[in-house]
Specification:
globular, about 260 residues, about 15% strand, binds zinc ion, 8 strands, TIM Barrel, about 40% helix
Length: about 260
């Protein structure tokens, strides 16, 4: 009944025990998962994984922290080819990241410009293929929304791992986009995000783990895994004064409307 819309099962951190991790997710009632890729090689790995497991789909894209793996424009053709796979549910994870330092040999402005260029090319590809987009933002909110919002109406985006205010979220939602919440909403110091969770209209948000990162309470500090999306759902239900079944069902149908091919 739960839907983990963002879980990096293609991460090396799951190399040793991926099968039990997926089994624990199904046992916890997590029947559907979207695995976002971080680069072309990782996308192939994620697609191979999705072929073995019904209920798992993939977002293909180059993560802003990994755009040093591509140059020129030949890579976008490679991505287009990967995106034609039936297991592809969206383009992602793409976006901007101003938090992490540029890789060696990159000057900050050039790195940011390259991130923006790669993002634009991938947004164009999403429009071309009729796919929605999974967005990463880290300390880049203004630049990211300035690039993405003009695409409203041509594609829908989910602002993954949303931690902003309701005021920031509403214009996105009015334009047809979504946000998704991670285990951060279970943290004691969740602050403004708790308020956003409480007041956002149903249908405007989805749930995710962002595994292997951001394990929710009571697993905080451990490696995160998709089964834990159930804990985030319970925290969201508590904040909203709803039954967890209701949160699970509304967020699952929101995700089914957003992702292709389930
Ligand atoms: Zn991610």
């Amino acid at each position: 009944m739960f839907f983990d819309t963002h879980t990096h099962l293609g991460s090396r951190q799951f190399d040793a025990d991926l099968a039990p991790v997926i089994q624990r997710a199904f046992d916890a009632g997590v029947t559907r998962m979207v695995v976002p890729a971080t680069d072309l090689e990782n996308a192939r790995r994620c697609l191979a994984l999705a072929k073995e497991h019904p209920g798992i789909r993939v977002a293909v894209g180059i993560h802003p922290c990994d755009v040093d793996s591509v140059s020129g424009s030949g890579w976008i053709d490679e991505l287009r080819e990967l995106a034609s796979d039936k297991k592809v549910a969206a383009i992602g994870e793409v976006g901007l990241d101003y938090y992490h330092a540029p890789p060696e040999g990159w000057e900050t402005n050039a790195w940011r410009a390259h991130q923006a260029e790669c993002l634009r090319l991938q947004l164009e590809l999403a429009v071309e293929l009729g796919l929605n987009v999974v967005l990463h933002n880290r300390d880049s909110w203004e630049d990211l929304t300035a690039i993405v919002m003009p695409y409203s109406g041509r594609l829908r985006a989910v602002f993954h791992c949303y931690t902003g205010t309701l005021e920031q979220a509403l214009p996105l939602i009015e334009a047809g986009h979504l946000v998704s919440f991670t285990g951060i909403v279970t943290f004691k110091n969740a602050g403004q995000i708790a308020e956003t969770v409480r007041t956002l209209p149903g249908g405007a948000y989805m749930l995710e783990t962002d595994a292997p990162y951001l394990a929710p309470v009571p697993h905080r500090g451990r490696r995160c895994e998709p089964a834990f999306v159930a804990d985030t759902a319970r925290a969201v239900a508590k904040l909203r004064g709803q039954e967890v079944e209701e949160v699970a069902s509304v967020t699952t149908s929101t995700a089914l409307g957003f992702f292709q091919g389930f």
